[in-house]
Write a structure and sequence with these properties.
By secondary structure, the protein is an alpha/beta fold. It has one domain: CBS-domain (Roll). It has six helices and six strands, in the order αβαββααβαββα. Strands 1-2-3 form a three-stranded mixed sheet. Strands 4-5-6 form a three-stranded mixed sheet. β5 and β6 form a beta hairpin. It comes from Pseudodesulfovibrio portus.
Length: 162
Amino acid sequence: MMLRKRAWDMMRDEFPTVREDASLAEAIRVMREAMVEAPDSQVVVVLNKGGKLVGAINLWKLFKAVKQSVLKDDNLKADGSVDWDQQFANACLICTQERLEDSLITDPPLLKPNDPILVVLDVFLKSRRDWALVMEADKVMGVVYVTDVYREMTRDMVQIFK
């Protein structure tokens, strides 16, 4: 049964998206909102105005961008005479100006809806990512996370282990 699973069976058809002209702050906001419903959500799909895939930004890229833009301020590292809350708030404003293009993953791992689970696993291993976009023609249909594959695999395994 497990080997019959396809990317389509495991993908999430609701996933966070932003436009390519969005700010880093918008991507962070969208990611946080997605995590309310799906705590293991970890990628935001970036689309152009026509709805075509431009790339993606994942948690690691967001962390790196925040470190470079928000936490780079030398005033945050100053001695005790600084109002830390105000300095952090000021530094966070940088995120509203930062564009995604510097943090964008332009070659995200891609799957077809009918790709079998072994192909899905191979894409994860080769790309060294724990997510992949499911594409049909030029449209993003969904996202598959390694946790989704794990749930599917272990559902059948647990029955065998009894």
